[in-house]
C-alpha cells in the first residue's frame, strides 16, 4: 500500500494533492469573475451574489473541517475521485440553474471543494517542514487564481459568458478526478498519533481562533476596497490599481514565507504581520494620495500571504499531534467568510467607517489570542510527555 513519508515536498504524490487543493480553492479568487458574470446576465442580483459567495466559502470551510475530523486517510483516491467528479457536476449544473438553485448549488460545490481541500491540508500537516509547504501552496494557489481570472474572460467566458466559466471549472474538476489516481491512496499517520484522539486541546482551539480572527480582519477590508478608496477621495481607478498591488504583493509575501519558513518564530512573526497589516489598513484609510493608497494596499497584501503559513507552524507548536493543524483550512475559510459578513452588518449602521472599527476589533482580538497561545502553550509544554 502506498504510504507517504513526512517529507513530501518533492514527491509526485505531493504534487497531485497540490493540484487537488489548488483546484478546490480556485473559486475563492474567481468569485468576482463568475458571480459578476451571473449578475450581468440577470441570473443573480447584488444581494444574491453576496449570499452565494458567503454560502460557498462557509461550505468549503465546514466541509474541510468535517473531513479532517471524520474521513479516513485511506482509500483517498476513491474519495477524491468521487468528490472531484461531483464537484464538476455541481459546477456544470449551475450553467442552466435559476437564482435560488444557483445559491444551493454553490453551497454544494463548496462542500465538495472542502473535501478536496482537506486532502491537501492533511498532506501539509504531515510534512517535515509544513510551514514551507504551506507557503508554497498559498503562492501557487494565488498564481493559479491570478492566471485563470485573467484568461477566462478572454476565452471561454468571451464566447459563452458565465456558462463558459462554469464549464471550465467543471472540466478542471473532471481532470482532477482522473489525476488523483496517480496520487497517494493513504497518508502516513501524523506524529504522536497515539495521542491524537478525542477533542482538540485548548492550545489548538486558541491557535485556530487566532487564524479565524486574523482572516476576518484581513478579508473584510479587502472586500470593501473600492468604498475605502472612495472614502479617501481617490479616483475610480484606485480600487483596480490597489487590487492589482494586493495580488502582486501576495505572491511576493508567499515567496518570502517559503524562505523564512522554519527559520522565523511563528508567534512573533504572526504578531509582526498583524501589526504591519493594521498599519497598512490605517494608511489606506487616511491616504492623502493615490500612490500612498496603492502602496499601503501592497503592504497589506504582502502581510496577508506572508502570515498564512505561520498559522500551520503555530498550531503544530501548540499541538504536536497536528490535529489542530488539520483543522486550519476550515478556520481560515470560516474567518474569510464571517469577516465580511459581520462587517456588512456593522456597515449598515455606521457606514464605511464600520469597516475600520470591525477590523480594529478583529485584529486586537487576534493579537490577544496570540498572547494567550503563548501562555497556554507554555503550560501545555510543562505537562506534555
From TrEMBL:
The chain crosses the membrane at residues 15-37, 49-71, 78-99, 105-125, 132-152, 158-181, 202-225, 237-257, 269-287, 328-348, 354-376. One of its GO terms (cellular component) is plasma membrane. It is found in: Cell membrane. Its main location: membrane. It is a multi-pass membrane protein. It comes from the Bacteria. GO terms for molecular function: transmembrane transporter activity. This is MFS transporter. Keywords: Cell membrane, Membrane, Transmembrane, Transmembrane helix. Gene3D superfamilies: MFS general substrate transporter like domains. It comes from Caulobacter sp. 73W.
Amino acid at each position: 500500500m502506498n504510504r507517504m513519508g513526512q517529507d513530501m515536498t518533492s514527491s509526485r504524490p505531493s504534487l497531485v494533492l497540490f493540484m487537488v487543493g489548488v483546484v478546490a480553492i480556485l473559486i475563492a479568487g474567481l468569485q468576482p469573475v463568475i458571480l459578476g458574470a451571473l449578475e450581468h446576465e440577470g441570473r443573480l442580483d447584488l444581494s444574491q451574489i453576496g449570499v452565494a459567495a458567503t454560502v460557498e466559502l462557509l461550505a468549503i470551510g465546514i466541509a474541510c473541517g468535517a473531513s479532517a475530523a471524520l474521513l479516513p486517510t485511506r482509500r483517498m483516491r476513491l474519495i477524491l475521485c468521487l468528490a472531484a467528479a461531483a464537484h464538476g457536476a455541481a459546477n456544470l449544473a449551475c450553467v442552466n440553474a435559476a437564482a435560488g438553485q444557483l445559491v444551493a448549488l454553490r453551497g454544494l460545490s463548496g462542500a465538495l471543494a472542502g473535501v478536496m481541500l482537506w486532502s491537501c491540508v492533511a498532506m501539509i500537516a504531515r510534512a517535515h517542514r509544513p510551514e514551507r509547504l504551506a507557503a508554497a501552496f498559498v503562492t501557487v494557489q494565488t498564481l493559479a487564481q491570478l492566471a485563470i481570472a485573467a484568461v477566462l474572460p478572454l476565452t471561454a467566458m468571451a464566447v459563452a459568458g458565465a456558462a463558459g466559466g462554469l464549464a471550465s471549472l467543471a472540466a478542471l474538476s473532471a481532470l482532477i478526478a482522473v489525476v488523483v489516481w496517480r496520487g497517494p491512496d493513504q497518508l502516513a499517520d501524523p506524529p504522536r498519533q497515539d495521542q491524537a484522539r478525542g477533542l482538540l486541546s485548548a492550545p489548538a482551539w486558541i491557535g485556530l481562533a487566532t487564524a479565524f480572527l486574523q482572516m476576518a480582519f484581513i478579508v473584510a477590508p479587502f472586500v470593501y476596497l473600492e468604498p475605502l478608496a472612495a472614502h479617501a477621495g481617490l479616483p475610480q481607478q484606485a480600487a483596480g490599481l490597489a487590487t492589482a498591488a494586493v495580488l502582486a504583493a501576495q505572491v511576493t509575501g508567499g515567496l518570502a514565507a517559503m524562505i523564512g519558513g522554519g527559520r522565523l518564530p511563528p508567534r512573533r512573526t504572526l504578531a509582526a504581520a498583524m501589526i504591519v497589516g493594521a498599519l497598512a489598513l490605517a494608511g489606506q484609510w487616511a491616504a492623502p494620495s493615490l500612490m500612498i493608497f496603492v502602496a499601503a494596499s501592497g503592504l497589506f497584501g504582502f502581510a496577508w500571504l506572508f502570515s498564512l503559513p505561520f498559522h500551520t507552524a503555530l498550531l503544530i507548536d501548540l499541538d504536536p499531534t497536528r490535529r489542530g493543524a488539520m483543522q486550519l483550512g476550515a478556520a481560515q475559510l470560516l474567518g474569510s467568510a464571517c469577516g465580511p459578513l459581520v462587517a456588512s452588518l456593522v456597515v449598515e449602521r455606521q457606514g464605511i467607517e464600520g469597516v475600520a472599527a470591525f477590523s480594529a476589533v478583529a485584529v486586537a482580538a487576534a493579537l490577544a489570542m496570540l498572547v494567550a497561545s503563548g501562555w497556554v502553550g507554555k503550560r501545555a509544554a510543562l505537562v506534555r510527555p
